[in-house]
Amino acid sequence: MKHSMKKLTAFLLAVICVCAMVGCGAKEDKTATTAANQETGSGETTAAAGDEGTTAAAGAEGTTAAAGDAGTAAAEDGKVLRVAMECGYAPYNWTQPTDANGALPISGSSDFAYGYDVMMAKHIADKLGYELEIVKLDWDSLVPAVQSGTVDCVIAGQSITAERMQSVDFTEPYYYASIVTLVKSDGKYANAASVADLKGAVCTSQLNTVWYDVCLPQIEDADILPAQESAPAMLVALNSDRCDLVVTDMPTAMAACVAYPDFKLLDFSDTDGAFEVSEEEINIGISLQKGNTELKAAIDGVLAEMTPEDYTKMMDDAIAVQPLSN
């Protein structure tokens, strides 16, 4: 009996030693994995320049690391980034019948979406490791879709206004769009050099935009028609001579002049005769559900690695391949 107890004691001691060794090995593996992840994250950081170099670099490292961590988790979980847009607002976004130029399928449709917003969505999803799903919604349905969580974010040429920020959160701007006017090249306002020169014009623009709500009332004695439900409808109104002019942003106007060669773009920016708009009204952002800080930080981390020149190049590429009608 005594001999048996000694054997049992020896056996138990051996089991305890093996368990301890396995536990130590797991801890070392976890530590090594964490160190490797940290090394990868720091390798993706872009250093900032200038007098704020040290502080900016530290901030960029934190932001990029957060974006990298979110992307890794998304890839591992097979997460899908559901992005809403009109798919009818060239050059920001439009609908086309094929996947030409890298267009993506529209959820629940046989059509495809492309344009600047799709390009940006693809770039963000690739950086963060998400699968991407494009959801087509009417302009007025975009904010409610974010609020309800039906979609993860909206990338659709939305200005970052104080009014919208009461309902949703916004990322840093992903484009900076100046306000311009479109007229017919042979129309009575073709030579206008300021907002004052547009006096008495019959005009319209898109519903629930800075262009309609803020800019058109600045035209003296303007005959302001009802707002149009979409950007294409706004352009059709001008093309069919139902109005003398429309107010929009620079990318939309540039794209419109490709589709409608008899349109003329009037840019009063940086003159005394310009439309009076705030910075928030020309900064274009990505909207998210309020409190979704993790996704906001991840997207901001991607945008922090881009420059206004990158945005301009991407927009030029979108305009170059846009369909002439949408």
At a glance:
With 326 residues, this protein is an alpha/beta fold. The chain is built from 10 helices and 14 strands.
Keywords:
326 residues, alpha/beta, D-Maltodextrin-Binding Protein, domain 2, 2 domains, 6-stranded mixed beta sheet, 5-stranded mixed beta sheet
Order of helices and strands: HHEEEEHEHEHEEEEHEHEHEEHH
Q: What low-confidence regions span 5 or more consecutive residues with pLDDT below 50?
A: 1-68, 70-76
CATH architecture of the largest domain: 3-Layer(aba) Sandwich
CATH superfamily grouping of the largest domain: Periplasmic binding protein-like II
DSSP helix count? 10
Mean pLDDT reading: 82
Within the CATH hierarchy, at the fold level, what is the topology of the largest domain? D-Maltodextrin-Binding Protein, domain 2
So what's the CATH class of the largest domain?
Alpha Beta
Description:
This protein has helices spanning 2-43, 53-77, 116-128, 142-148, 162-165, 210-215, 231-239, 250-259, 293-303, 308-321; strands at 80-85, 94-96, 104-105, 112-114, 131-136, 153-159, 169-170, 175-176, 179-184, 202-204, 223-224, 245-249, 263-266, 283-288. The strands form three sheets. Strands 1, 5, 6, 7, 8 and 14 form a six-stranded mixed sheet that branches. It has a five-stranded mixed sheet with strand order 11-10-12-9-13. Strands 2-4-3 form a three-stranded antiparallel sheet. It folds into two domains: 62-176 and 282-321, Periplasmic binding protein-like II (D-Maltodextrin-Binding Protein, domain 2, 3-Layer(aba) Sandwich); 179-278, D-Maltodextrin-Binding Protein, domain 2. A hairpin with a 6-residue loop joins strand 3 and strand 4. The longest helix has 42 residues, at 2-43. Helix 2 crosses helix 9 (293-303) and helix 3 (116-128) packs across helix 9 (293-303). The protein is α/β, with parallel strands linked by helices and 326 residues long. Mean pLDDT is 82; it is low at 1-68 and 70-76. The protein is globular and about 60 Å long.
